[in-house]
Amino acid sequence: MAAKPNLAVAAPAERPASLVDGLVGYRLRRAHSRMMADLLPVLTPLALRPVLVAMLSVIRANPGIIQMGLGTELGIQRANLVPLINELTGRKLIERRADPRDRRALTLHLTREGEALLDEAAALIGDHEERMLAKLSTAERNKLLELLGKVAVD
Amino acid sequence: MAAKPNLAVAAPAERPASLVDGLVGYRLRRAHSRMMADLLPVLTPLALRPVLVAMLSVIRANPGIIQMGLGTELGIQRANLVPLINELTGRKLIERRADPRDRRALTLHLTREGEALLDEAAALIGDHEERMLAKLSTAERNKLLELLGKVAVD
DNA sequence: ACCATAATGTTGTGAGACATAACAATCAAG
DNA sequence: CTTGATTGTTATGTCTCACAACATTATGGT
To answer: Quick one: which of B66, B39, B34 has its CA closest to B51?
Structure first.
């Protein structure tokens, strides 16, 4: 029942909009892809990746959070979290400490170096966001944050 | 100079907002992740993935597009495009034809089966988007599309 | 016409993200 | 105390993606 006109003879001169172009999911994919492409080289000088920054950020906001909680917060499965945490502990950016309440769990804390490096990363990421959102006014950026929040939340 | 208030003394009773939570890039990542998690099982019955749908969609909107053009349009490198196109041609969803103007290039066209399958996918994806954007009004959805477009565009 | 450079499709390869299963240690509930 | 669930861990496999190299063909300069 498609009301689709026959355009087999139409000259594809300009750039006909594809079906996926009107989808939020598709533009989300493109916007995300473009931002990651810009962010990766930004963090390279600090030897960090976006995931590691997110981990540091959540640990700073929730000192003493256990690994399972960190994984849930970031949408990372605990199995895949282990090598990431090993990477951060190996660089003395965070510490694993025994949880006094639960002997299975390990709590996570930022070290001084972790704090400092996260501050550096935050500054670089601030510039990065400013660059990516240059076309958007402050009101538009807030609106985008709000709308993305509604989509991201469960 | 960042106008960042000192919140070190705030009581972390509820759920303290982490630094990354105010970043567009981070919410973009979360929103994208959630939508993909919902979309993948939607396309499973058709044995399709989001990339394949995007390819079919762009080919339908630009019949005769060459592989290089498709890769540029979707942000996929031509090397990685080859097995994807092989997958679609193997399933008789698209066809590779010689380009009369450039003997290096191969033009791409949808088959009837490709058209039909894309229509099915479009219907399923329509439901999927409706589900993901349930919290947003029509005006908000259009605004989100517009803002994402500004971020995604180069 | 000739030559150097670029573009297109292709293959191969490796790194990284991610899901799953299985296990030991510990907790929680009956 | 015993059964089941939870936490951290290891191992494994899959999927996506980037990069390098190559043959074929176009393009542009001389």
So the answer is: B39
Determine contact, residues B45/B128, Cβ cutoff 8 Å.
no
Interatomic CA–C1' length for residue B98 and nucleotide D24, angstroms: 14
Contact B25 A58 (CB under 8 A): no
Does residue B104 reach within 7 angstroms of strand D, measured from its CB? yes
Residue A69's pLDDT is: 96
Strand partners, B105: none
> One-letter amino acid identity for A94?
I
Among B62, B135, B152, beta carbon nearest to A27: B152
User: Angle, nearest 10°, between helix axes B24-43 and A50-61?
Assistant: 110
- Residue B150 corresponds to which tokens in the numbers above? 């500004």
Residue-wise pLDDT for B74-94, tens only, equals 999 999 999 999 999 999 999
Q: What is the pLDDT of residue A154?
A: 67
Residue A29 CA and nucleotide C17 C1' are separated, in Å, by 16
Residues 8-27 of B with CB under 7 A from strand C: none
- Angle B149-A50-A104 from CA coordinates, rounded to 5°: 130
User: A17 in contact with B at a CB cutoff of 8 Å?
Assistant: yes
In degrees and rounded to multiples of 5, residue B95 shows phi and psi of: -130, 145
DSSP A150: H
**How far apart, in whole angstroms, are the C-alpha atoms of residue B36 and residue B49?**
10
B77 touches strand D (CB under 7 A): yes
> Full-prediction pTM beyond 0.90?
no
A38: CB within 7 A of chain C nucleic strand: no
Q: What is the mean pLDDT of chain A?
A: 90
Contact (CB, 8 A) for B96 and B107: yes
